[in-house]
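Q: Structure tokens for this one, please.
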Amino acid sequence: MTHHLTRKAALLTAGFILLNASANLAFAREPAQVNYQVLLLRQELSVQKNGAYTDNIDRVIQPLTMAGVQSQSQMQIGYPANFAQVHILEAYTETASGVKHSVPADAIYTQSSPDALSAPFLSDGRIQSVVFPAVAPGDTLHIRYTIHYNHPYLPGIYAISTLLAPNVPVSKAQIILHAPTSQKLYAAQQGDAWHAVSIRHAKNMTSRSFETSLNKVSYPPLGSPAMTQYAPLAVISTAEHWTDVAEAYNQLATPSMQMTPELQKAAEHIAHGATGLDAVKVIYHWMQKNIHSVSINYANAGFTPPSASSTLQRGVGDSNANAALLCTLLHAVHIEAAPAIISTSARFHPYPAVDPFAFGHFLVYVPAYHLFLDPTSRYAGIHSLPLEDAGRPALITGKNPRMTQTPLPDLSLPLIDQHTQLRLSASGTMRDQTVEIRRGYAAQDIRSALMGSKGRMLMKGLRNGFYEQGDLGQLQSMAFQNREKLDQPLGLKTSAVKDGLFIPGQSVAMIMPTDTSMAKPLQAFTAESVRTTPSLINPSNMQSDISLKLPQGYQPAYLPKNIDVQTSVGSYSIHYALSGQTLKIDQRLKLPEFVVSAKDYPALHQLAILSSSSTREGLLLVKKLKR
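A: Here is the predicted structure, written as tokens:
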């Protein structure tokens, strides 16, 4: 499992510098400041006839601020030590006046990668660290190095790809792939920033190259998808079709899924006589509970999974190992299944050309029921993928390889369906009885947050959350329905008393009770009215109905206007109605897609403003005068 994939050092080192300062712009805004620039980034990959290959990298980077010095003065080069070697050819700091300070030998050192330390039986990853001396803003950092690979990560497939991060200036970037003439080369790009460069062909070799520069800097705002979704990306590969990757992976994975008497016996014991879809459910949920998961960077580990029998014995594996084991257990009860490779980054279309490291996580595909299963996810139901797996490009391996897409979240029923009964007293105390039904990833989120808590510890945690939200009073009770039944909706029933909502008097004011959770998915889109990049949202279908019993003798001075807006990206509505002493508030939000284009962004901004303003509506109650 590699939910946060570090790019492959051999084929994708060029992308590391360009991506380094903005790895997670979907959730954190970068300061509007250029901290460093790339003066030169050149990566040249040469494939030999015997299948080995060498990656030559040349970088020149200039830190412009102290933040840039801190982020760039130590470079790390990751690689799989079991079939690759790194050689630093040259590394030095050059001051603005032209003085060179070479990196001393003791400032170049090798250490195990984090995944090799946590799971050495799954990864032999190493990190070569280079610490530049005497670095100040305005200096330049120069490094040339090679990584030699004894064989490719996947049999017969070589690729190189580089992404331009829009907030890092690049004076010159170039990628080159040389291969024997017996191998054709395929090149493509996302956007038109990269330019194909003609190269003189050497004898018995063919080459493809791209180069570019990026001087105009922009800062992707909060709520942007992965940059591979929209930023300039160039790819050169020896594979023409994604199915070539699937077939190469099959060569590595098929021996790992060999049936053994131990696996056959285990599958029959787990299934306990179940067949068909029932057997899939039982075996999948057994894996979730009994086989633990660790994160592995496949750039450091390679794509060959350990044998299914060894994963069963250890009780732990990465997503590749766990997918191989789940497939093998399903095969034992006569159910066809195959690993499917995806990326968990917020990217929803394939690369413009074939690069195996566009992927970094493994699921299992069961064709008889068109199911994608993630055995590394503890709380996913059989029909509901975790949010980071949904709607992504998926490469199905096995006997019938093909590129497809994992299912989007099922919005046919509300992911969150909340029913609330409120009773407000004239003293300012409110009794709250709420029943909430959660489905899909919304149920997974709560089940994961509970993390096995029970009894007093559970209530303590829930009460702490109650007070952290600013509520006064007491959370009296909470009950669950289907907490352990992952294929069923999760029910939550809460009872609470909230104090101090207003000071009693002839007229009293308070915040209108609404479901504030509806505004949360849209908070990132309230500030800007226009965007030039795509925006990332979580597909949602949420509804809430609130019934508020008002104190005897009080009536609202007015009711807010009803809102009912349908847009190209979704819909939002909130309706208010008064019947006797009961105020009813019906609120709904539906957002069907992950990515909203810059063209459609104003509609998303409109929904964000409407949902946000609804949570701040005031309720003014006026006491009726007695006649």
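A few notes: Residues 267 and 329 are 5 Å apart (CA to CA). The two ends are 72 Å apart (CA to CA).
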